[in-house]
Amino acid sequence: MIDFTFTEEQELFRKAAREFAETKIAPKVPEMEETNRGWDDVVSAMAEAEMFAITIPEENGGLGLGYVARLIALEEIGRVSVATAMMLQVFGLGIEPFIKFGTEEQKKKYLPALAKGERLATAAVTEPTGGSDPKGGRTTYKKDGDFYILNGRKCFITNSHIADTLVVLAKDEENPEAFSTFIVEKGMKGFKPTHEEHKVGMRGCNTGELEFKDCKVPAENLIGEKEKGLRVAMSAIGDVGRGGMVGCALGVHTACLEASVKFANERILYGKPISRLQAIQFKLAEMKIDLEAGRLLGYRAAAMQDQGLRSGNEFAVAKYFTTEAAQKAAKMAVDIHGGYGCMEEFPVTRYLRDSFVLGPSAGTSDIMKVIIARWVLS
Amino acid sequence: MLKIVVCVKAVPDPKEADKIKIDPVTKTLPRHDIPLVINPLDRHALEAALQLKERFGANITVLSMGPPAAGNVVKESLALGAEHGILLSDPAFAGADAFATAYTLAKAVEKVGPVDVVFCGMASSDGSTEWVGPEIAAILKLPVVTMVKELVGCEGDTWQVKSKIEDGYRLVQVKLPAVFTVTRELNIPKTLSFSGIIKARSKEITQWGLEDLNLQEDAVGLKGSPTIISNLTSIEIKREVKIIEGTTEEKAERLIQKLSETGVI
Questions:
Q1: B34 at the A interface (CB within 8 A)?
Q2: By the CB < 8 Å criterion, does B101 face chain A?
């Protein structure tokens, strides 16, 4: 018999993450929504709550709790503020190259401070000319003595202006087929964050562009094998990035269902709560079915990841399903709220806006289908 | 080093209180799938012990009586920082009222050995009798201070605490060992931490039953409970809306009159 239950310890992780989200993050949400800022406070709160240490191995100053625990944390934080969950999720992309491909020196130098939240990480792959097609990127590197010189631009980067440690994908100036990844640190000459984005949703989650203008990166900051950078970047995006988006989507989806149940039980029409109407019940049932299915897909993939199995394809399925389902759930939640669903006082308007940011992050739904089709046909 | 026992009760999650319905036949509260959590006031009791541990060093034992499923609240208490967890679980303990509960807990405190302090939440969110703490003290022949809202001085073996009373507090000096029941004003409980959960991996939960405590079956559980529940009903609170008309002054006057009539002011 397959055991689909969480362990007692995992249940406690969920409780810890939920308590944290409800007491430390929820009070910040109005400010984040209103100002598209507030990230300093929530990042500090996450550091204090050891959220950045979850997947970092114990020998590198982390908690070594693995990817099911990470998914639990992202789901619970996403239920309260998916903008905050998104910053944590992309932090995961930024540290994964260190965990999987970093040298002992790189792990020792960077991971303990990242685990404590003293430094914030991100990964920079997407460019105006290449996101879904990472080879289309134009950021280049060239060797110059003990340094690499980076030139180019990255866009739609989460944590762009607040990250201290960035893993950047670039291609050889001489050989457009050869990609490598580099550790870039805040304050390095020639590197600066530029334009800040104003997204339709996930307000308060820092997103923007990065510029590299003759940015000098020490040769020891090459992470992973030279000219195997696509593997490093895709490995981070494939499992950790998609897995993280599953957590964000499940969080939004849960929030939509909870808000809808509450509203449907309180709103009286025809002399009774609208939750007694079959039209509303069917919507709630559909939301629940998708949520249960999404959880099974997501946690199965994360459990495989914890066992060291290849899980990229399973995460592609889970990412496609959960992000699409969360958008659908947000639309239904707004529908259930009727006119109130158009009012900013009700959180479902935020969930609807947030849900639209889930799709493109870490690979669009169409790219997920390409990956899944490749898997099916292989 | 202070030796502290904290009594924690597993209660149905108060956030899901609307799901709790009285069984009209058995007059009990079937819990169905409502998760068990630490009684909210007991979190304050545990936090008081944890803060004393930080300041002076202490050895904290958490004591809970309940079905095996209540083990999760003991585990959670260990994750929050208690050293030892004891679950009093035995079919014979089932159906205990406040007195039988206090008796069983008191016997367990005796078995733990000499303790300096017993902390309890002032009341549980389900039964809410406020009797268990004082009854433990009576059975153990210890002094008790109820409704503690502040620990003013707790160096040495004579403590000064503020005990909440209507419209204020009384300052109580008490010699240890003693029992304290605490209110929510006492502290803000810390939330669970991931590293606390990891540390709890190496902490064992001891389970004691009737024989371990050397108790007679008719002294515990339903048989040892003098309380008889003759009836149990739900209270329905109905809201009523009344629109007060008139100028602002008239509305204010009528509102004051209405509030005085209903006894609110």
A1: no
A2: no
